[in-house]
Structures are given as structure tokens and as C-alpha cells.
Design brief:
The protein is an all-alpha fold and about 120 residues long. It is about 80% helix and about 0% strand.
């Protein structure tokens, strides 16, 4: 069982990588919604974020090499995360009438703790 100090350090690193990833992904999303539907922009931004997060979390947070098995498991985990996040975005935009430019923030708020657990299981 990892110590609380180690776990909190990993969570802090995960949040830092996630903050950079979120900023980059949201910038990409905001640029893409100018030329395509919000759901496609979200998908492309999310895919770019998966690649960044895999290598940044492996190298900087969990200090573990990325193998093919880990990369495949990571992508599969994030496909489920993507579906949940997209569901949240669609709910916010279509049902709650949140502006499309703000809706991904709701997905980030809900999915961050879930994604940390997945990262910890896969890379920790």
C-alpha cells in the first residue's frame, strides 16, 4: 500500500500534468469549434490529450516506462473516460443549455478524480 505522502505527491503531479493537458486540449477545442461541430472538436482535442497525458504522466508522475501493453490499456481506459466525458458535454449543451465553449469544464470536474484512479492503477 502506498504511503499517503507518495499518493498525495502523485495526485499533485497528476493535477499539474492534467492542468497543462486541460489548457492545451481546451485551446485546441476552442480553435476547432470555429470550423467543425463541437462534438468532433471535443473528440480530436481529447485524442491529442490522451497521447500527451500518457507520456507526461508516465515520465513525470509515476516514473514508469510506457510499454505497448500499458499504452493499449491506457487508450482503452480513456475510451471509456471519453464516452463518459462526451456524455457530460452533450448533457450540458443539449439539455442544460450550457454554452458549448464552457461545457468541457463540467466534464473535467467530474472526470478528474476518476481519471486519477485509472492512471494510478495503470501507471502507479
Amino acid at each position: 500500500m502506498p504511503s499517503l505522502r507518495r499518493l498525495s505527491g502523485q495526485f499533485g503531479g497528476f493535477l499539474a500534468v492534467g492542468a497543462v493537458n486541460t489548457i492545451l486540449s481546451l485551446l485546441l477545442y476552442e480553435a476547432l469549434i470555429l470550423v467543425m461541430p463541437y462534438w468532433l472538436a471535443y473528440t480530436l482535442g481529447f485524442a491529442a490529450g490522451i497521447a500527451f497525458a500518457l507520456f507526461a504522466n508516465a515520465a513525470l508522475v509515476f516514473v514508469r516506462p510506457v510499454t505497448v501493453v500499458i499504452a493499449v490499456a491506457y487508450v482503452l481506459f480513456y475510451l471509456v473516460s471519453y464516452a463518459a466525458g462526451l456524455g457530460i458535454v452533450v448533457l450540458l449543451v443539449e439539455v442544460l443549455r450550457v454554452p458549448a465553449g464552457l461545457a468541457p469544464l463540467g466534464a473535467v470536474a467530474v472526470m478528474t478524480p476518476i481519471n486519477f484512479i485509472g492512471n494510478r492503477l495503470l501507471l502507479g
